[in-house]
Specification:
about 325 residues; alpha/beta; binds N,N,N-trimethyl-histidine
Amino acid sequence: MIIEDFMPEIGESSIREELLACLRSDPKTLPCMYFYDSHGSELFEEITRLEEYYPPKIEIPLLRSTALKLKQDIEDNDLVELGSGDCSKISIFLDEVPKEVRQTIVYYPVDVCRDSIERSACNLQNRYPEMKVHGITADFLEHIEKMPGKRKRLFCFFGSTIGNLTEARSIEFMTDLGKVMNKNDRLLLGMDMVKDIDIIEKAYNDSQGITAEFNKNILKVANDHLKTNFDPEEFEHVAFFNRKDSRIEMHLKAKKDLEVTSTILNEKIIFKKGETIHTENSHKYTVDGIKKMAGAAGLSVENIFNDDKKWFSLVEMVK
Ligand code: AVJ
């Protein structure tokens, strides 16, 4: 097992600057990557177990059935997983691949989080001793040219994480990836599909309030970095489907006029009652939309694997 590190040490001051710039902007925002401190990651785990939060419930069996369809094609491939996290998704996929095929694969988990690369690459190597594992810590959105692999590559980007990007940003990402892809390389992209709006909205407004807690936790993360005194209870969790942009939007809405101060900043962050911080977009796709995006990025859709209800897709794209 090899681990390679392409992540520059991100200084606390640049994190502060980014967060502050987002809170100064109009409308206010916070980048959704800041949900995932250790408490936020636990809350997200809890979300994935909720009845209402359907995406993993559909994607996991879909990963199995797709692996069964692709298993022969991935012989001698370099499998590059973008945003590999705890590697649980790829394990579901690899469990369906015969050991003889796994023996011919090199698996490259790529993630910004050094801890999760170290831990998960190690776990995966134990689970599949016959497979080569080469972990990479990198921000693939910024450093796509650092993507590893010399043989035929299958890039995997599961979990509908791409849904967090705006359409323009995801086209840019796909274009950049297309530039480094060779003729035989493929991309397998997990995408959450448009469905009954009520079902989508319930997935982000669960009855136990876990998603609300997850959303508000970003204020504690902001407090940690900016030494601010955000009180999460002074904000209301708001999540709704924006039809025009085909996405769930999550916001935090000030319940009253507020002044947030910091022990290290000499400025206040002022909120009018009802003002919101936009914390996340989660795009939902249509087959037509996916084909258009791929086309705009110079890629073409080779296959769409989906569940019976067509709630989620694994989209195979080629150059
Ligand atoms: C991890 C980005 C796929 O957009 O559904 C879950 C994050 N936000 N509930 C999603 C999330 C609120 C999730 N992704």
